[in-house]
Amino acid sequence: MIMRRGMSIFNVATVSLGLAFLYLPIVILVGYSFNASRLVSVWGGWSTRWYVELAGDSAMIDAAWTTLGIAFLSAGVATLVGTFAAIALARAGRFRGRMLFTGMIYAPLVMPEVITGLSLLLLFVALEVDLGFWTITIGHATLTISFVAVIVQARILDFDRSLEEAAMDLGCPPVKTFLTVTLPLIAPAIASGFVLAFTLSLDDLVIASFTTGPGATTLPIRIYSEIRLGVKPEINALCTILIAVVAIGIIAMSLIRKMSGERPVATGLRA
Amino acid sequence: MPGRDHKNANWLLRLAVIVPYLWMATFFLAPFVIVLKISFSHPEIAQPPYGPVLDLTAGIDGLKAFFGDLAAKNYEFLAFDWIYVSSFFKSLQVATYSTAMLLLIGFPLAYGIARAPRRWQGILFMLIILPFWTSFLIRVYAWINILQHDGLLNAILLSLRIIERPLVWLATDTAVYIGIVYSYLPFMVLPVYATLEKMDETLLEAAADLGCPRWKTFWLVTWPLARKGVIAGILLCFIPIVGEFVIPDLLGSSSTQMIGQTIWTEFFSNKDWPVASALAIVLLCLLIVPIVTYQQMQMRAVERGH
Amino acid sequence: MDADLTIGRNHSDGRQRRLAPWADPAARPLVRFEGVSKSFAGVRAIESLSLDIFEGEFFALLGPSGCGKTTLLRLVAGFESPDAGRVMLDGQDLAGVPPHRRPVNMMFQNYALFPHLSVAGNVAFGLKQDRLSKQEIAARLHEILALVRLDGLQGRKPHQLSGGQRQRVALARALVKRPRVLLLDEPLAALDKNLRAETQFELMHLRERLGLTFVIVTHDQSEAMTVADRICVMDQGRVVQVAPPAVVYEQPNSRWVAGFVGDVNLIEGRVVSSDGNRLVIESAGVGRIHLAATVDFARPGDTVWVALRPEKLSLMHERPASGEANCASGRVSDIGYLGDRSVCKLALDSGFEMKIALANNARSIERTVVWNDRVWVTWPQAAGVVLTR
Questions:
Q1: Residues C190 and C242 in one domain
Q2: ipTM for the whole complex
Q3: Interface of A with C in 153-212 (CB under 8 A)
Q4: pTM of structure
Q5: Which CA distances in Å does B143 have to B139, B156, B177?
């Protein structure tokens, strides 16, 4: 193997600085969640008291369950619809309305969330639908469909079509070929899509705020209303937990993809 | 679908087209029409429904009454009130500067990772991605910790005696820029890295073999190939930053608001839905060209994939 | 019986060679292309092509890249459908029959092994589609794996196999369903030279043993010559010549085929006289050529080309005695030593260049002919072929 890759001093410096920049605030946040003192400027020693207080905050726990429920459901819907969209984009060739279809699928990727949130709320009001758990779920699903579609579509395009031809050559009808040959091999990408949709829903503030109703407070909404009043150590603890959950999810997903032999390449947010 | 040479599209393909179509048409497209309509209506009472109401049972007369009653009053309101106009300008300004900063920081970062030895690339890439999957909100909040009056930054600067008294970092434009660059960095690094990673190294070797010094190779060989990723990254950052709400709200001052904040305030504080809708429509119109450009790029990438 | 009109080996029990199907007017083809045309994005891949392939043949499609040979294969498999004309199997038009319903199987160039299935899973895949019983599948699996010498590797996954092993799995997978036609798309391209030669013979034995019809696509002419009963030489979407290997080599029908299959010296000349079985041609390159050939299409004054294969020529240091002998003189400009033979390039006095292949008969490092030698090249009267196009 030719040693073609080499990082110059400049490269090493940039990457290290970049990573430090990215991680420092998070590290600090995590650190402060264990700070016995309430004040940021004073280090009072290691303590888990904020976690304990958090556990006792029942409203927070409710919000956590709500958030998890919404994330799970919306990610499920988004994965299904997004995978369909990916299949349509990659395999359906030219169909009527393809331009509009593509436009609708890619637009949410760049659309400012205030616009999407506002429009969804107005829709629900016009339809006289009760705002709450389900409207947030629909809102999150609508947002994350694009992300799932992009990831799965990239994988389908990468997929070796001669495998499908071989299956059909051996007598397997097209739909069955897709289900028994293609689907198992693109499954890791679909799983990544699900995890991404889940995390995006978990973290979303804007769309949740627009589409929420009585009794459907999510964690981001709670966090936001609290931190408007200033830094709170309980929030630090909560954030640390959320970070840990997401980190575990991603590492697990990376391992899955590595084991299935896929290259850990960009999720498709590329030209 | 396998067997795409056969004219009969199978039921799976049809389903794959219809389901997303229906969903997005209902929950993405149709709402825009409603926003458009609301933006032309007037708040008789400060809650929905906003007049004029489309009465389908009244037939043609109902339609005529409806369209006759629509007013561009809200748009006039926007055009003549300096708060809104300056809000748009501020958003564009912040988006432009931050995108430039993101490019300056993000490109070398992506380049550095792309040049790393293969076995490191996976880990490095995951390290860049990880923050992106953590909550936006949390990461911005993390900066509040650091930037606040008795926060970490001031503590360090004081102890190094660079400053004598704690400075104000929060509620400034600087804080907003830091927050934006911090949060959007993965959006710039991802597409650039993806493009650079695909680049064939033997091209660089060939250029060197033909007598091209390293910096020149960059301009003549690397840059033209990386351009696509850079443009994607610019669009992926610029467009959402214009409509950004969380970061300026938490880190910025209330003197000049960005348009995302303005829409939020109009909607939640002033409860003026028609004005908020009008603002959203104007924002959409402002961004329509970049959005469509981005979509064209994506479509062309899909075509090439065929 | 003529070699080009018969098929099959001479069996030791004295069974006669039988009349080859392509020479038998009563024989019906297994695969027939009737006026088939196919374009891709405005580019014509196949142009009004008609071709018959008979049962039991090892049929080779040979030609340069882009000649349409792979397209023909895919038309039979069903992955493409013709823009014009018909593709028929056993007399039935295949139009509208999707690939998974055709009794035809393909061995892909990149093998296309299912990465998530084991060797057994891959090979049994087609049998499962036919809904055979578990015992039946197991039996056929066992049989075919033994035939291609893959037993013991059932449980392995494709990424755990060598290139040669993967190729055999692809072959087994395509053979296990006993298709009417087995299509092979450049199956040996990825193998090294020795493995390739070995596998060529294996393919021929397999075909004979199973009694199947093989259609192979290759750009390697020596491969086509080795395995095929008939070669179809293609260029730019058209069939140029279809014949057994010996005929394609010794009796090419055009300069293009003569040049494409093997090395050749092409000499342009004018017919001086043609009577019954002797032809005299005057050429600028080598002077007067005498050919023993029955050509009734060449009249005096016609421009023709004489194709001389390098191995049919001999070199001498003195001028040949007979006045009528085909000969020319020149200087040796290049010698290429290839082990079993040497190829000499001769710069003739007329300015024409010729290639001569000399078998290295004697085990000697000393060469009889060296660079810059003045030599005479001669060839017998039956050595050349007259081409009019």
A1: yes
A2: 0.82
A3: 160, 162-163, 165-174, 177, 181, 184-185
A4: 0.78
A5: 7, 15, 11
